Give the backbone structure.
Amino acid sequence: MAQPLLRAIDVHKRFGATEVLKGIDLEVQQGEVVAIIGASGSGKTTFLRCINLLEEFHQGEIQVDGERIGYTEGTHRRLGETAISAQRAKIGMVFQSYNLFPHMTAEQNVTLGLIKVQKRPKAEAVETARRWLDRVGLSERRGHYPYQLSGGQQQRVAIARAVAMEPKLVLFDEVTSALDPELVAEVLAVMQDLAKSGMTMLVVSHEMLFVREVATRVVFMEGGRIAEQGPPDALLVNPKSERLATFLGRFHGVFR
Amino acid sequence: MFEPGSFLYEAWAARYGLLAGLATTARLSGITIVIGSLIGILGGVALSYGPWPVRLLLRGYVDAVRGIPVLVLILFSYYGLALLGIQISPFTAGVVALGGFCGAHMSETVRGAIESIPIGQTEAGKAIGLTFWQRLRYVLLPQAIRRLLPPWVNTAVEMVKGTTLLSIIGVVELLLATQQTIARNYLVLQFYFAAGMLYVLVNFAISQLGALIERRTAHFRY
Amino acid sequence: MTYQFNFDVIFRSFDKMLAGLWLGLWLAALSLAIGTVIGLLAAYGRQSRLAPLRAVVWTYVEIIRNCPILLLIFFVYFGLPELGIFFLGKIESFVITLSIYAGAYLCEVFRAGLASMPARYVEAAKAIGLRPVQRQVHVVLPVMFRITLPALSNNLISLFKDTSLAAAIAIPELTFVTRQINANTFRVMESWLTASALYLVTCYAIAWLLRRVERRYAVIR
Ligand SMILES: Nc1ncnc2c1ncn2[C@@H]1O[C@H](COP(=O)(O)OP(=O)(O)OP(=O)(O)O)[C@@H](O)[C@H]1O
Ligand SMILES: [Mg+2]
């Protein structure tokens, strides 16, 4: 097998005395779409935030494209601000609450990273932003401010903002759970489109139909550990563990 | 109506002195607001993100200044700076005191504005790889400034009003110029009233301008 | 350049400074009391159905809040005798000015307090059959005072600091006394450092005390 794009080795994370991640091992290959499912509080968000260096972790290591991120090689010393920023730029992240910059138009939200982080010329950045806003179906709205957009539209801008930087890996954390039900589909459609184009994605989601259809692999987290993983059909239809069966029981009717 | 002893006649006779006073008031207000805003932005950022010794020092400065009357700061600065052997004009002593006063208040306001921005903004900035200074420059400060506007305008009005205290150490701004005029013509009520109305008009205009800009930018806030 | 600190002369006049501080506290408390009455009346005036009354109150509030207090002090102290009002002493004149000044700010505080009053309190008062005035006295005002308590304590502290301006008309409060000591002894640093410390300690003591009161009377909205 080729070198994995993402490799997490025995990642531990504590908040104060409580250990939230109790040794996560995960490898994600180029082009895979890995869905993470699990009960509330099982550590899904925390794991994604460790990958994007929004949280520090206490033990273990995470590599992206063979490069150790967040900490210096061989020790567990945190890298400097500049190095961390550069590593974050290679990993995209889409948040549950969109977090668009309210004082910038849709287009400016997308170009900010291209211009300031990737130092691309303005014209080229604008061109790229327009292409991506077109791709997520918002070419008409590029001059709009976030408050002028619906939740689904804001989330699509946020996706464009993340992917326009051509990250090696994009993290999605429950990106549809703050949306009204009728707006969920438009966002999932965009994600499905990205998945088809071969983008490597790590997706935390409770949208089981989407997970089953789009993911190449499903990871079930439980109490800060990965309890079970495998292809969606096998895992979701015939869970091996009792726990996963119980968890999936809540989505009763979706699979059978 | 225009004979000597009437208000209009005396006001016309004193026009140069009064206008010079008004100009001094404008200059003092402008300088202290600019100094205060600069101190405020630096101080506010440092109070939010600085290393703890810096934060402690600034906290001391801000809390001390906010617990001492401005007039005491002005008198302290006026008599105290002279001690340092520097030949210092009342104008400069006043600018030091009022600028320091304004800066302390602005620091606290800026800190509050920065800290009221949702954490998601910082995280989104981090996620696209912006460094600390870039996040500050492109994400946090532009939003903080919109939140700052109403209290900033209030502070500006307070500073215009505060410049009158410098009359006590002999800076001939509008109030002292008015008093000098009154000393010549004894039209106490008329001249105090006229000067007061001038302050009211200017400050009212500043407040209204602030309210207008605030309405315009209200959308961009969470 | 070395400055030799010598606090002896300050200690010799320390009782005068304390007397000045005490006077300032009194001036602030009196002005807050009178200002509260003015502010309450004005706040109800702002809610009145009579447009002219609303306009008068609005004009009062805007003029006072946009006018430098020092100018108001001089206007009242030197101007009122011109109108034939001679019987006011320095202190009365200053307290009147500071009360009028406080009233304008407190009007805004009370107006916001009345506006943020949850409707359910008034409805409950109606439900038990209280008449309009009773509703105000027994329900609206007590709740409103508790809601506005933090703003009131900020105002008291501001007023206390503003009493330093009484020095401008030679009322012997702390700032005036300090300036005299400074002039008589030339101990610049000592006198102003002491005055600053006294003001600081008093301001934070008031803040601390009032926070305890606030906590005791906090309302859950
Ligand atoms: N900043 C924090 N400080 C303290 N504890 C935290 C913090 N963030 C998360 N936790 C705790 O860590 C645990 C895992 O949280 P996490 O957000 O990763 O769960 P999750 O799997 O994403 O849940 P959900 O499905 O509800 O989003 C929870 O018990 C949570 O209370
Ligand atoms: Mg989560």
About this structure: Chain C has a mean pLDDT of 91.
